[in-house]
């Protein structure tokens, strides 16, 4: 057995895949390189806990890091590519953790503020405090389902109904609507702004005969309707 054969035997699957990618940086070679480190990637993923990112998101991030690491890696680093790549991946996940935590705090405030807005708006909209707790929610839901379609976009309305009227979490809504959790939280934020302007900007009464709730026109009512379209 000559020295070249020994050297080839010492090479890992990752080393061979990296060489192939360097010689021909095509998509298939990059996938082969990524697959060689897939078990290590999963180990790193298991070390982290995210609120707004699922495993598919983290795998996509790992693919991007793998590509960038392959582009920047040099043998003069005096470390194997696998070690370099995994360290880059850990650094990336650490950065995402900080952003994820900040997003969670912002989104929790959005959830709370929207729910508090609707609770505070019940007395102003209905004009009384019912002795029957269920009737307030029913009447509020009836009002919102009639007025919200005018104020909200179709997507905002779907998110609003799922979150407020059906009590789904943002993650569940994102999965049902096939969007990111961030898109759901952004929609809830827009719902809050529009409904806050609606509740605080006009006078309301709720007829005892169960007729449709009526809002007296406010000076900027036309602008509100235009902005929601």
Automatic annotation (TrEMBL):
<dbReference type="InterPro" id="IPR013324">
    <property type="entry name" value="RNA_pol_sigma_r3/r4-like"/>
</dbReference>
<dbReference type="InterPro" id="IPR036388">
    <property type="entry name" value="WH-like_DNA-bd_sf"/>
</dbReference>
<dbReference type="InterPro" id="IPR007627">
    <property type="entry name" value="RNA_pol_sigma70_r2"/>
</dbReference>
<dbReference type="GO" id="GO:0006352">
    <property type="term" value="P:DNA-templated transcription initiation"/>
</dbReference>
<comment type="function">
    <text>Might take part in the signal recognition particle (SRP) pathway. This is inferred from the conservation of its genetic proximity to ftsY/ffh. May be a regulatory protein.</text>
</comment>
<dbReference type="GO" id="GO:0003700">
    <property type="term" value="F:DNA-binding transcription factor activity"/>
</dbReference>
<comment type="similarity">
    <text>Belongs to the UPF0122 family.</text>
</comment>
<dbReference type="Pfam" id="PF04297">
    <property type="entry name" value="UPF0122"/>
</dbReference>
<dbReference type="InterPro" id="IPR007394">
    <property type="entry name" value="UPF0122"/>
</dbReference>
<dbReference type="Pfam" id="PF04542">
    <property type="entry name" value="Sigma70_r2"/>
</dbReference>
<feature type="domain" description="RNA polymerase sigma-70 region 2">
    <location>
        <begin position="33"/>
        <end position="92"/>
    </location>
</feature>
<dbReference type="InterPro" id="IPR014284">
    <property type="entry name" value="RNA_pol_sigma-70_dom"/>
</dbReference>
<feature type="region of interest" description="Disordered">
    <location>
        <begin position="210"/>
        <end position="229"/>
    </location>
</feature>
<protein>
    <submittedName>
        <fullName>Sigma-70 family RNA polymerase sigma factor</fullName>
    </submittedName>
</protein>
<dbReference type="InterPro" id="IPR013325">
    <property type="entry name" value="RNA_pol_sigma_r2"/>
</dbReference>
């Amino acid at each position: 057995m000559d020295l070249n054969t020994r050297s080839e035997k010492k090479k890992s699957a990752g080393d061979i895949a990296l060489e192939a990618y360097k010689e021909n940086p095509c998509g298939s070679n990059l996938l082969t390189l990524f697959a060689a480190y897939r078990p290590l990637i999963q180990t790193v993923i298991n070390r982290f806990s995210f609120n707004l990112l699922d495993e598919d998101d983290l795998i996509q991030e790992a693919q991007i890091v793998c590509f960038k690491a392959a582009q920047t890696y040099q043998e003069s680093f005096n470390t194997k590519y696998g070690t370099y790549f995994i360290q880059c991946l850990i650094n990336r996940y650490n950065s995402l953790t900080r952003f994820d935590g900040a997003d969670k705090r912002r989104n929790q405030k959005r959830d709370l503020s929207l729910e508090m807005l609707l609770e505070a708006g019940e007395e102003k909209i209905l004009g009384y405090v019912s002795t029957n707790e269920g009737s307030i929610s029913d009447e509020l839901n009836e009002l919102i389902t009639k007025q919200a379609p005018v104020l909200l976009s179709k997507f905002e309305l779907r998110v609003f109904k799922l979150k407020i009227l059906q009590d789904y979490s943002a993650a569940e809504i994102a999965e049902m609507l096939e969007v990111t959790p961030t898109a759901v939280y952004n929609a809830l934020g827009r719902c809050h702004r529009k409904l806050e302007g609606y509740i605080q900007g006009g006078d309301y009464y709720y007829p005892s005969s169960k007729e449709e709730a009526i809002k007296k026109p406010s000076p900027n009512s036309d602008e509100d309707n235009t902005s929601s379209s």
